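Page 42, continued from yesterday. The earlier attempt failed because a stray header line got pasted into the input along with the sequence. Redoing it now with the clean sequence only.
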Amino acid sequence: MTSANAPSPQALQQEILADARRHGDRLVRSAKVEAQEILAKAKADAEKEVQDRMAQARGEAQHRRDLVLATVPIELSRMRNACIEAILEGVYGEARDRLLRREGFDYGERLAALAAQGVSRIAGQEFVLELSEADARAYGANLAAEVERRVGRQGLRISVAPAGAKVSAGVIVRDATGRQVWDNSLLGRLDRFWPALRRQIASDTQLVAPEAPSSTGGHGTKES
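This time it went through. Structure tokens are written below.
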């Protein structure tokens, strides 16, 4: 037998449902708050990741830029040196061609002077003047006497010998045994003088800065 004040089953059911709804509402509100917090944190993390990656990308870009800029002076120097070398090689080639064409000077006079200089630099009395085939034919008959006159030493015995392809212009002077040789061919002289000539040309034309004078004050010998 039930009490007259006891809630009816329907009322109890409604109370249970109402309590369940309230509990469900609290869960939904809590879930919404938690979801919003999760979304806010995810958004903040994503923004931080973006900023970090952008900062890293800017750093890498700056580093690459610095590397490129650091190579610019080196590359400019390399290009300038290559241009200077090309210019000097052109000068050398032009000088070589003009010597072989025997332009701008009295070749016969110069040949006699070169031969006399070679004889004067070698000890002994007997000498051979090695010339190209063409020079031996053109100048060989009188060259020995002219060299003896220029050297001014008595008792010299000078002969002329064709040297084939060994001499294209100028003369190679040797003693009778061949132990003493003085290369006064035009191309031989050009090759000997070229290192000093190229420095002088580069300095005079301001391709490179002029070299500072030696602190010792000494003077080197110069071959003519």
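Notes: Residues 20-101 form one domain.
Reminder to self: strip header lines before submitting.
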